[in-house]
Specification:
By secondary structure, this protein is mainly beta. The protein has 2 helices and 28 strands.
Amino acid sequence: MGSVMRILLISFVAMALACSSDDTGSGDAAGVAIDANPSEVSTIISVGGDFSGNGVLTVVQLPSMRVTVNAVVGVAGGDPVLRALGDKLVVLDRFGGDTVTVLNRDLQLVGQASTGPGSNPQDAAIVGDSLFVVLYGTSKVIRFNLLDLSAGVQAEVDLSRLDSDGNANCASIFAVGQKLFVTCQLLKPDFSARGPGVITVVDVASESIETTIELQAANPVSFLKQDPGGDLLVSTVLSPLGFDPQAKGSGCVERIETSPPRVLPCELTNRELGGYANEIAAGAGSVYFVKSIAFGLASLHELKDGVLQELKLPGLGDDLAGVAVCPNGALVVSDNTVGARGLRVYSGDDLSGGELLDVGWPTVAFPTNGTICW
């Protein structure tokens, strides 16, 4: 859904880091039941923005279900997304915000930096003390020093040569060892696809393109995710604005082997899914997809042991924005359904639960890639 978001003009409001007392749950001061089994304790982080500069970062503690709305002020702008990278949380404010913010696991500020006017940062990866950010607006990967984000951009890798118009439309990045895997959509100025999308592999040591591999289909739109076996998954769809019924199922969930880099047969075609995977989450034995068929219409699906099924879980609406898997196996679903917007948490073998948690998203937010659990 990033392409829709990119055409919305938003402004960024930088604010000082502070803690809010807007607490909508109950529990002890730490937000975790005192007698909780450590293996059941997880923290959900969720962001949402209003596309005009105002966003929230909300924390949900498991198993207590304590919700703290706007737990960290000033890090979520108008169009925020999240990446959990090791013990760091990276918040990117995209088109119009053009900032990256890094927090520690305890949500203390590591630093915040500008990615440059019109840069439209999309995704981030960390290797050692380096933070790499892929920019949709300028077709670059830029590097920051995590130990001093205030020092600004330290280096950049220009990806513009990947497309004849100089704009490679690069949308996601994932680090595997000393390699950065970057998806590029290769779109025309009208956002129609020139042909198949690509993944370019950047060598961290030389900060240069090592190789580029062509995907099987056009327009990689989702975040790159890694399955337990080490392969990367990304969703492709012909239409940049969503699933195109006229395309008759073009695109798929692509599977990429990382050593050596090569594209494997599709994990799942859009025809099989009946839409496209707007967001992907890989668990220990399952891969979960939020399937979109049109703007405002999306459902949850699971692929397990080669069998695809729709998960019709208690309370779920018909407009889902995202899915995340907690370390204890709990499933977190971002439900964007009008009148029932918030997070739902399901746990156990029977995926019970699903009580709606109001996490304070602005009314017009579409929080895809906005929820993690660690």
